Every structure is written in C-alpha cells, then in structure tokens.
Automatic annotation (TrEMBL):
This is RIPR1 regulator. The gene is Ripor1. Belongs to the RIPOR family. Residues 50-69 are annotated as: Disordered. Pfam families: PL48. The lineage of its organism: Eukaryota, Metazoa, Chordata, Craniata, Vertebrata. GO terms for cellular component: cytoplasm. PANTHER family: PROTEIN KINASE PKN/PRK1, EFFECTOR, RHO FAMILY-INTERACTING CELL POLARIZATION REGULATOR 1. It comes from the Eukaryota. Residues 16-362 form the FAM65 N-terminal domain. It comes from Struthidea cinerea.
C-alpha cells in the first residue's frame, strides 16, 4: 500500500556532496498527490525497545471550534469500509474454524476440539462487539447529520433576516433566536465530531526502515520526527556496514484524528551543528483503516530516491484488553499446524460392530493357541 502525500512547501537546505537528491527541493503548492509503492527493507532493532503509547490526556484533542463536515464524511466512509473489512475477515475465519470442527469430530482428540471451540466463541464475541461498535458509529454520524441540517437551516434564517430591513421588534427577536440556534447547533456538531473521533481506535505503527536505492551509506545517521496532532514520535537510526539499520525505537501507537494529517520530517545527522533536512512531508491517514496489517511507503524527497517504510496495524478499539485482528486471525496458522499434527495418526474409535469383530478374532486366536479349535 502507499500513502498519499499532501503537497507542502519545503525549505531549501544546503547542498550535500554525496547526492543531490537528498537536498529538499522547493515543491509547488499545487503539486498533485504522489502514490508510492510499498517495500520492506531489512531493519535490525535494539533489544529492550518497547512500544511507546500516547494515551496521556494532553494528547487528547479538545472539541474543535469550527466543525469540518466534509472531512468527517470522508473519514466516516473510510472507517465504515475498514469495519466492514474487519467483519469479513473474522467471519471467514469463523467459517474456517467451524469447518475444521465438523471435519475433525471423529478423527481428533477432545483437547484439540476444545481449543477450536474456544477460538470460535472468542471470535463470535469479538464479532458481536464489532457490530455494536459499528452501530454506535452509525448513530453518532446520523446525529451529526441531523445537527448539520439544523445548522444549515438556522444559517439560512440568519442570512434572510440579516439581508432584510431591521423592521419590527419581532423580526429582531427572530434574528437573535436564529443566531442562538446556529451557535447551539455548531457546538453540538463539534461535540459529536470529537465523540466520533474518540471511536476511531488506534494505529500501531512499526518502523521498517529507510530505502535509498544505493544512496544509503554505512555510518549515516538519521532522525525521523513524526507529528500527528498533539502526538509526537522521534527516533534515530544508523546505517550499519552490512546494510542493516539500527533504530532506537521500533513502535508507536497513534490515536486517529479526523482533521489532522501525519507529518514526517527526516533529518540527516552529520555533526553536532550540521543537520540536513532531507524531507518534510504530510500524509493522508484515512486509508489506514484496514483489517490486516499493511506496509506503507512514503517518498521523503521530491525525486523519490529516499523512502520511509512503515507497517501500520489498525485496531478499532483503543483498549489493550480487547482482541484484535492480529490476536484472532493469526491463530489460524497455529490451528492449521495442530490440525495437521493430530491428523497424522488419528486415534479412531471403533464402532460396536467392529468391537464385536475384534473380540471374536481374539477369542479364536486363544482357542487356536490352546489346541481347542
């Protein structure tokens, strides 16, 4: 997958001897979005690194003062598409596990069947919670649309009373009442927009590395700074002799936002007082609402000679105690391995007729052995 890069004017940086492509070029404001191809470079991570989280109250965005209905419509459509994909993925996994249970009732151990049944019940609970979550988002969006229509009606009334003559006292009172209603509906839209934003879940971002098409040299050091609303993530990395990359941080959890875009700034650290800005881009995030983890690539400079690769996993819930796609879907590989292991030599249970046949054969063997046949 690729992230759409929003046009953004950059500052012209100093010239670099190794490659002209690392210098940030002034980009025109009307430059079209760029769609980038995905890739997966090799990255070595330092031991002991952990996931950084952004759940302090300072990172929670306050309700906006001016609603953004057009932007909210785009995010809502992308969110519904992601939730639908989540439901489809888990429904397929549920059908697959149910099929395995039906096929293995005779030729599998009870422990294996019990494990499969627990996974089926876990996915069923997750599906019910996911459907409830989707219905809650629909209700919030419907309430938002109602407030938007009321706000548009109040705006038209204010415009009509304002263009006409002041007239009587009743006209002035009607204008004041319409203005009060317009303000109230605007506040309601802002509150609903903030509430809907809190239902977007979370983005788990994993650093995959930089790729420079033979322009990354051993010993180079880079600093990557990501800004997403009030959320920040700064990490530093170094290019090793064996073309591997070592980064001081590997994961970050971002809370999705409605009106904000992900800003990425890459700086090459050359000396204490000589840092060169390689690129500074702003990326769209509404395409990250997907059921399965996806690797996205971002062009850091205009020529596309330096790319940043990130693995993004979307969790529709922002609580750690809730199951996610990775915790349920990834169990399929383990189930398949155990299924094949148990089916190599299944302990078949003989029927009553087979048991009677085995008993008669055994008795005949005993009679033949003692000479009584």
């Amino acid at each position: 997958m690729s992230l759409s890069v929003r046009p953004q004017r950059r500052v012209l940086v100093t010239k670099i001897n190794r490659s002209q492509s690392f210098a940030g070029v002034n980009s025109s404001a009307d430059r079209p979005f760029r769609n980038l191809s995905a890739f997966t470079p090799t990255v070595s991570r330092k031991t002991g690194s952990r996931v950084s989280r952004m759940f302090s109250m300072s990172h929670k965005s306050p309700p906006p003062k001016v609603p953004q209905p057009n932007r909210l419509d785009e995010v809502y459509e992308a969110l519904k598409k992601g939730l639908t994909a989540y439901l489809e993925v888990h429904q397929l996994e549920l059908e697959k596990l149910s099929t395995q249970i039906r096929e293995s009732k005779r030729n599998s151990r009870l422990g294996f069947l019990y494990d499969l049944d627990k996974q089926v019940k876990s996915i069923e609970r997750f599906l019910r919670r996911l459907e409830f979550h989707a219905s809650k988002i629909d209700e919030l969006y419907e309430a938002y649309c109602i407030q938007r229509r009321l706000r548009d009606g109040a705006h038209n009334m204010v415009k009509a009373y304002s263009t006409g003559s002041p007239g009587s006292r009743e006209a002035r009172e009607s204008l004041a009442e319409a203005s009060k209603g317009y303000k109230e509906y605007t506040e309601n839209m802002c509150l609903l927009e903030n509430e809907l934003e809190s239902q977007l879940g979370e983005f788990h971002v994993r650093m995959k590395g930089l790729a420079g098409f033979a322009r990354l040299c051993a010993g180079d050091q880079y600093e990557i700074f990501m800004k997403y609303g009030r959320q920040r993530w700064k990490l530093r990395g170094r290019i090793e002799v064996n073309s591997k990359q070592v980064w001081d941080s590997e994961e970050m959890v971002f809370l999705p936002l409605v009106t904000e875009f992900l800003s990425i700034k890459v700086t090459e650290l050359k000396s204490l007082a000589n840092h060169v800005v390689v690129g500074n881009v702003s990326c769209e995030t509404k395409d990250l609402f997907a059921a399965l983890p996806q690797v996205v690539a971002v062009d850091i400079n205009d020529l596309g000679t330096l790319k940043l690769s990130l693995e993004v996993t979307w969790n529709p819930f922002d609580k750690d105690d809730q199951p996610s796609a990775a915790s349920t879907v990834n169990k399929a590989s383990t189930v398949n391995k155990r299924f094949s292991t148990y089916n190599q030599s299944p302990p078949d249970t003989p029927s009553l007729r087979e048991q009677a046949f085995y008993v008669s054969v055994h008795q005949a063997g005993l009679l033949r052995r003692h000479g009584r046949w």
